[in-house]
Specification:
Length: 109
């Protein structure tokens, strides 16, 4: 039996960062402007950790819904081809959707 802890992180916005802003003349650190929003270019990162040996698997997706979560589960299955797999996750709706819980569902193909 293989236990995998799985969850998603996001939204993260792919971008480049300007160089560190350095210090002001009065000796205080100048803070970089925070750029956070839920714009179309956001990316979700799915991750799975196998605690027994510390191996991790990640996948990026343009959205956080059942279809992408099921693709991520398929990647986990492909990476662990033998024995049972137990996924430990939270109760997000995409984790509990009928199509995620139904083996052989067309959306999981």
């Amino acid at each position: 039996m293989t236990v995998i802890c799985a969850d998603e992180l996001g939204p993260v916005i792919p971008r480049t960062f300007p160089p560190a802003p350095a210090w002001s003349p009065n000796g205080r650190r100048i803070k970089a402007e925070l750029d956070y929003s839920r714009r179309p270019e956001k990316t979700w990162v799915y991750g799975g950790l196998r605690p027994a040996d510390g191996q991790a698997l990640t996948m990026t997706a343009s959205s956080r819904h059942s279809v992408f979560y099921q693709r991520f589960l398929q990647l986990l299955e492909d990476a662990n081809p033998t024995g049972q797999i137990w996924i430990v996750t939270d109760n997000l709706s995409s984790h509990n959707s009928l199509s995620t819980r139904t083996p052989g569902c067309p959306s999981r193909a």
